[in-house]
Amino acid sequence: MKAEIMSIGTELLLGEIVDTNAPYLASQLPALGIDVYYLHQVGDNTERLIEVMARAWKRSDLILCTGGLGPTEDDRTRAVIAEMLGEQMTIDPDLEHELRDFFGNRGVNMPENNLKQAMLIPSSAAIPNPRGTAPGWWVEKDGKILAAMPGPPRELHHMWENEVRPRLRQRVKGVILVSRTLKVVGISEGAVDEMAGDFLAASNPTIGVYAKPDGIHVRIAAKAEDEASARRLVEPVERELRQRFGENLWGSDEESMQEHIGQVLSGKGMTLATMESCTGGLFASTITDVPGSSTYFKGGFVTYTNEVKIAYGVDSALIEKHGAISPEVAIAMAKAARLQLDADVGVGITGIAGPSEQEGKPVGTVFIGVGHEKAARGHATRYQMARQDVKVRAVTSALFQLRQLLVQLAAD
Amino acid sequence: MKAEIMSIGTELLLGEIVDTNAPYLASQLPALGIDVYYLHQVGDNTERLIEVMARAWKRSDLILCTGGLGPTEDDRTRAVIAEMLGEQMTIDPDLEHELRDFFGNRGVNMPENNLKQAMLIPSSAAIPNPRGTAPGWWVEKDGKILAAMPGPPRELHHMWENEVRPRLRQRVKGVILVSRTLKVVGISEGAVDEMAGDFLAASNPTIGVYAKPDGIHVRIAAKAEDEASARRLVEPVERELRQRFGENLWGSDEESMQEHIGQVLSGKGMTLATMESCTGGLFASTITDVPGSSTYFKGGFVTYTNEVKIAYGVDSALIEKHGAISPEVAIAMAKAARLQLDADVGVGITGIAGPSEQEGKPVGTVFIGVGHEKAARGHATRYQMARQDVKVRAVTSALFQLRQLLVQLAAD
Predict the structure, then answer these.
(1) Which of A39, A209, A313, B356 is deepest in the core (most CB within 10 A)?
(2) A42 to chain B, minimum CA–CA distance in Å?
(3) Residue B112's pLDDT is what?
């Protein structure tokens, strides 16, 4: 099945908004065995919308479009579909009723403009949208399918997952793709390539090796008639690769390093505390992005001055001797954090995010310390990038160091 | 002049990468007086690339495309342009020389594949790319222009700014657009609309009012033959609106709330300290995204447990009486932060990012306290969104509260 995705809205053409809807939908289609050939962003202009949509209707089997379902003059998706198919729009009494209820429940009279959202054509059925006022349209005609969904991502995602994807899954026959991504850290892309060696030449499943900010990703992708058969192709390769990568493998698919660390910490009943300088709290914030992190994260300090570092347990002589931006102080910050907050593991980060050098050390210099009563480790690095990117990379690097410490503690 | 933008690469169709190049270029064109009608993402497929490009060439005056200029088999942009225009590609000796030098300087033999990057057609000229191996193509024929630029954003941005934009500026005759966005907080969209009343009906400059996560944006946009004339249309309206919005206006254009706050704090020689619970350090991290924040930001606490809140100055009786998630504790956290770190202003944030309710309070409940020796204020809110979004919105809200406190202190 060939698909084409259209994102509708003049704001997309002004570059005011980056279209994340089309990539989101595109990323979902391979698993359904649907190929995507074109993504488009088109403005709220009837003529151009009809032109692009009519071409898509002719050459593709499936059109997914987002946006233009609102109540205003600019929202033209329904009218464009109706005109393209030569069908008449009428108000659906049930939809009108639901819509009036929606406003009524909020104690508001429905603006008459919103009546547009109760329109249907003979080939369309409404797709429920519990997160907004605009129902989607599911259109089937001449063996083709068109799904029109709302533009706001939280409405779109909900409608896609709960309504459109399940319906497509029933309709699509053919080859589907199942993939599993293994995430590896501490070995180079070249070394991973060698370790995966014999599998790299295979055609089903195929193996892809990618260098990413959080390490190396190894993607195993299999095609088959159905999901179960595709999984059966992936599994033995996954098992073998997991064994080869050993402790360098830390996660899979959408799992993040902070989630992985959270699982290890809660599995061992251990707690964490932090002391950050150049990352300004971003490490703690990343740790607390994980639901349930309050069970293992005790808290942290953002110590943006030497006085504050000293006040919370870093030895002033150490700062005097090595400078605040030094591996020694990073390790001392990690220790101070865990002692202050009575935590098992501490993380300390000190460095220069920019824009100017400090203590004669260049912008982008970052020292990371991670420590436990029984072991500590330091890491030095330098990032040649903008201030906010330095922060992000330093946080990723600190997550790795913390993960390595946890591996080491488990081995001891 | 009508433009159309194409982003080329199969990875865009798999949703592995979000295309930021097309929105970047689109956002640059209004200032040049160029209208954008279509953005497309197309895979590395010769047939489909020619189809889309030929249609664009026919209906638009300018095509900007990115990607597909690399050395591999998948990189087809040059060949597609040549085929569309019916011209023959040949190796340009100067380009070949430069390319061999590029590799030679790195002590590497040039892979023969890279010779593709030295190809030209009669209608194309090379556009220098100091950030990579792939020169761009500047094509002029039959009164139309096509610029093919590399896909990696840092190469693209450099080539656009230094080569393509200046050339277009010379070529484009006609009307250009200059805009200024004023950022307002503390008054509703409707009230801003009323205050801008008489200007809203004007056609040059036009006024647009937009509700955004960081308040209301008022965009003044003027069209004229040249930049100076357009600026002369914007200025009197800007001056008048600045006066009307008074202290509710906090910034303009790309300025962020954290930069604005940084300017106010350093202007007054005041310092800041924070104590965060549900935002987990994201507020401190946002404050420290601003270069130079070390002059006014002393540091902060991430107090993820009640014990840690109490250890650093929050009264345990207050927590017992009102719960840790309460306006009283938020204000106490702000006070504890500034007293602990000897800062002038403190910010406290407590709430429930999710996924489960606490103290019988629903997910998304957030209390913010901001305080100074002479004044304090609290703010309660509830966000119905995902954990990480709650954190982001709570940080924005805390920035507003801090800004309001600073306004109040200045007025006292």
Answers:
(1) A39
(2) 5
(3) 84
